[in-house]
Design brief:
This protein has 410 residues and is an alpha/beta fold. It has 18 helices and 12 strands. The strands form 3 sheets. A 7-stranded mixed sheet has the order 6-5-4-1-2-3-12, with helices on both faces.
């Protein structure tokens, strides 16, 4: 534990079991841990690919894992062994929430599915986050981010702009669905607070991402029959992009009527203020290609800094294009301390990326550095009521793993 006098988080006293792998489930559990929950990560003896990717200083402690697994304790179990399963079930008995992205069939084979666990702990909230809803023909299929980007229509949307389907260069489906898992768990915790009832939550990635994509693109197809073509034209034009300035790139985003009036005047195009193509929002959407081409043509006349200054004076949204590899050079992000240099007991100096949310009374923050695989096995099993000799027998049998003491020189 870090000792920095941080007040308890909003979920202080809530215990979460993170029985998940890769990105979606671990991110959801990390959010809950950042909110102050005691998160116990039950993982395999070897860890998953997010643990074992490169680069890393030590095995199982990848750069991705240092931020993804923070604010958690780790217990490493072989769940296929009866004693490993028994250990997991005993840890769950004293918990409030289980989050898993294992397929239901695999959970049921292990005897650790929602039905098995909630039969023992009825007040438990058990969230199963899978690729597809259990009552559809895709139920049980494997799902990774790229497959969900394809199946959810996100890759198709990219194709509407660039001519052929493509993936966003981000694990966006896993991350969006991870946030949705955290939201669902928080709602279930409020329900239990009011009623005392636990429940099983099913979160389907495909359905979550299709609904996410339809928020802005369904538009005319909200009506039956449709009142126009599918999609939001403003987002589907190839001219919606950062614009090349005299010395770089900038996102210049006039939006309201006033923004456009001011922009046309500033850009030396006052005759366009009353042009019927651009006079209001709906007219501009109908002529969005022409509109954005105008910005494209005038953007190179000024430097990025000049555009930012002029747009700021007129309250027109504008941002320089951020090179993510130079995030710490951004003056605003530096001032708010988004990236913080901290010291891990075994991995040394690393960059901690804090959450973008701030609470006045119950702060989110770094309470625990990311654990090594099985770092807390003895501690957690002892808290679950296991006697020391039983814990040692499990470790000796290969049914569990305890990480050795942290040593940067290993």
């Amino acid at each position: 534990m870090l000792d920095h006098g941080m007040p308890p988080g909003a979920l202080d006293g809530i215990r979460i079991i993170d029985l998940s792998t890769i990105m979606m489930g671990p991110l959801a559990a990390r959010i809950l841990g950042d909110l102050g929950a005691d998160v116990i990560r039950i993982e395999s003896l070897a860890g998953d690919s997010s643990r074992n990717g490169q680069p890393s200083r030590h095995a199982g402690m990848s750069g991705l894992s240092l931020n993804l697994q923070r604010n958690k304790r780790s217990i490493a179990l072989d769940l296929k062994q009866p004693e490993g399963r028994a250990a997991a079930l005993d840890v769950m008995r004293s918990s409030d929430v289980v989050v898993s992205n294992m397929r239901r069939s695999a959970l049921d084979r292990l005897g650790l599915g929602p039905g098995d666990v909630r039969a023992v702990v009825p007040q438990l909230i058990y969230c199963v986050a899978n690729g597809f809803g259990s009552d559809g023909p895709y139920a049980g299929l494997p799902a990774y981010d790229d497959a969900i980007q394809a199946g959810s229509g996100l890759a198709w949307l990219v194709g509407q702009v660039h001519g052929e389907p493509g993936y966003l260069p981000s694990i966006v489906a896993d991350k969006v669905c991870g946030m949705a898992v955290a939201q669902a768990v928080l709602a279930a915790l409020i329900h239990r607070l009011r009623t005392g009832e636990g429940q099983t939550i099913e979160l389907a990635m495909l359905e979550t991402m299709v609904a996410f994509n339809l928020v802005d693109h369904q538009r005319a197809h909200t009506f039956d029959p449709p009142l126009g073509e599918f999609g939001y034209d403003r987002l589907l034009t190839p001219y919606r992009r950062p614009f090349r300035t005299a010395d770089g790139w900038a996102g210049i985003i006039p939006y309201t009527d006033q923004h456009w009036h001011d922009f046309f005047t500033m850009a030396g195009l006052p005759e366009l203020v009353h042009d019927p193509r651009f006079v209001n929002h709906n007219a501009r959407i109908a002529h969005v290609d022409e509109l954005y081409r105008l910005i494209d043509e005038v953007a190179p006349t000024l430097t990025t800094e000049e555009w930012l200054r002029r747009c700021a004076d007129l309250s027109i949204p504008a941002m320089a294009v951020l090179d993510l590899s130079r995030v710490e050079d951004d003056p605003h992000l530096a001032a708010v301390g988004l990236v913080q240099h901290v010291e891990h007991p075994s991995e040394g100096a690393y960059r901690h990326v804090r959450d973008g949310v701030r609470f006045e009374r119950s702060p989110m923050g770094l309470r625990r550095h990311a654990p090594r695989i099985g770092e807390h096995t003895r501690e957690v099993l002892s808290q679950a009521g296991w006697a020391p000799d039983r814990i040692e027998q499990l470790l000796a049998s290969g049914g569990a793993r305890q990480a050795p003491p942290a040593d940067r020189g290993e």
